[in-house]
Write a structure and sequence with these properties.
Layout lengths: L1 E5 L8 H15 L4 E5 L5 H8 L5 H15 L5 H10 L15 E4 L2 E4 L15 H4 L2 H10 L7 E5 L6 H9 L2 E6 L5 H16 L6 E9 L1 E2 L2 E2 L1 H19 L4 E3 L4 E2 L2 H6 L10 H15 L1
Parallel strand pairs: 1-5, 1-6, 2-4, 2-5, 6-7, 7-10, 7-11
Antiparallel strand pairs: 3-4, 8-9
Helix pairs in contact: 1-11, 8-9
Bound molecules: adenosine-5'-triphosphate and magnesium ion.
The site of adenosine-5'-triphosphate has 18 residues, from α1, β7 and α10.
C-alpha cells in the first residue's frame, strides 16, 4: 500500500481536482483499490462529493451517512486524531470500518473532512504526537480488511501538524504547478520549505507536473512550454542537492470538462490519455 499526498502551499493550483480525478482513474480505469482522505478543513472535496447529483441517490446517501453515521457517531478524521492523541499506552483504538470510510464505488473509497479540523491550528492536540498520526492511521488501514493499493491525501494549502504527519509518511508527494511566471521559483521554495518543515524525516520522493496547461490547437502554448522547462531546471537543481524529485512531462490541460468533473460526478473521458500519462509517471517513480 502506497500513500500519495498532493501538496502545494499555493492555493487553487488543482490539488483537490487532480487528487480526486487521479484516484478515480486508478480505481475505475486501472482496477486499483483506492482510498482518498480529505485532510483539508476547507472541506472542498467533501463538499464537492456531497454536492454531486443534486437530485440523485449518491448525494442523499452520502449526506445521510455523513450526518448520521459519520459525524453523529464520532467517526471523523478529527475523532480518529482525538483517539490517537488521548491514548497514553501506545494503543490506537479506532475502528477502520464503514463507519469511518464511505464506499463511493467498489474500488473507490473516501474519508471526508470535517470543518472542526480547524482546531488543529489552535493546537489543542499534542503537536509532537500528532506528527506521527498519519503513519499510525496508515498502519491501521493497511491491516484492515480493505486491502488498498493506494491511499491519496488531499492537503490544505497551509501547513499544520496533520500535514507534517501526512508528508512525513507518504511514499510520494505530488506537486501540481500551474504555467505561470512563479512556477519554477515556487517549486524551489516549496521543496526547500518542505525540507525544513519535515525535518528530521527525509523528504519523500516528489513528482512535479503541470496542471491547467494552456493549449493552442492541441499543442502546449510556447508560454506553457517555457514555464515547464524552467520548472524542470528547478527540479534538476533540487536533484543535485540530493532531493528525489522527478518532473513528469505529461500535463493536464485547463479545460471546462475537467473543472466540472467533480461537481458533476464524472470522469473526463476526453482526457483519459493525459491522466494515463500522469498515472504511468507516478507508478514509474514509485517502483
Ligand atoms: N485542469 C483544470 N482545468 C480547468 N479547471 C481546473 C483544472 N484544475 C483545477 N481547476 C479549477 O481550479 C479551481 C481550483 O482547483 P482546486 O480546488 O482543485 O485547487 P486546490 O489547489 O485544491 O485549491 P485549495 O488550495 O483551495 O485547496 C477550481 O475551480 C477547479 O475546478
Ligand atoms: Mg483543495
Amino acid at each position: 500500500m502506497k500513500g500519495i499526498a498532493t501538496i502545494n502551499f499555493k492555493g487553487g493550483v488543482g490539488k483537490t481536482t487532480i487528487t480526486w480525478l487521479l484516484a478515480k482513474y486508478a480505481a475505475e480505469k486501472m482496477g486499483k483499490r483506492v482510498l482518498v482522505i480529505d485532510t483539508d478543513a476547507q472541506m472542498s472535496l467533501t463538499l464537492a462529493v456531497q454536492l454531486q447529483e443534486e437530485t440523485g441517490k449518491l448525494r442523499n446517501k452520502f449526506e445521510d451517512w455523513y450526518e448520521n453515521k459519520h459525524k453523529a457517531r464520532h467517526k471523523t478524521l478529527l475523532d480518529a486524531l482525538e483517539a490517537y492523541d488521548q491514548n497514553r499506552k501506545g494503543y490506537f483504538d479506532f475502528p477502520i470500518d464503514s463507519s469511518f470510510i464511505y464506499q463511493m464505488s467498489p474500488n473507490l473509497h473516501f474519508v471526508p473532512s470535517v470543518v472542526d479540523l480547524y482546531w488543529l491550528e489552535l493546537e489543542i492536540f499534542d503537536k509532537e504526537k500528532t506528527k506521527s498520526f498519519a503513519s499510525a492511521l496508515l498502519g491501521k488501514i493497511e491491516h484492515s480488511r480493505f486491502n488498498y493499493d493506494y491511499v491519496f491525501f488531499d492537503s490544505p494549502p497551509n501547513f499544520t501538524a496533520l500535514s507534517y504527519s501526512v508528508l512525513s509518511c507518504a511514499s510520494l508527494l505530488l506537486i501540481p504547478i500551474n504555467p505561470d511566471v512563479f512556477a519554477a521559483r515556487g517549486v524551489k521554495l516549496l521543496i526547500d520549505g518542505l525540507q525544513r518543515r519535515i525535518d528530521p524525516w527525509p523528504v519523500p520522493k516528489i513528482a512535479v507536473f503541470m496542471n491547467k496547461a494552456k493549449l493552442y490547437r492541441g499543442q502546449l502554448t510556447r508560454e506553457s512550454q517555457r514555464y515547464w522547462e524552467e520548472t524542470k531546471d528547478s527540479c534538476k537543481e533540487e536533484k543535485r542537492a540530493g532531493v528525489h524529485v522527478f518532473p513528469i512531462d505529461s500535463y493536464i490541460p485547463e479545460r471546462v470538462d475537467i473543472k466540472r468533473a467533480i461537481p458533476e460526478q464524472y470522469f473526463p473521458d476526453n482526457y483519459t490519455e493525459e491522466f494515463s500519462g500522469l498515472w504511468s509517471g507516478i507508478e514509474r517513480i514509485l517502483r
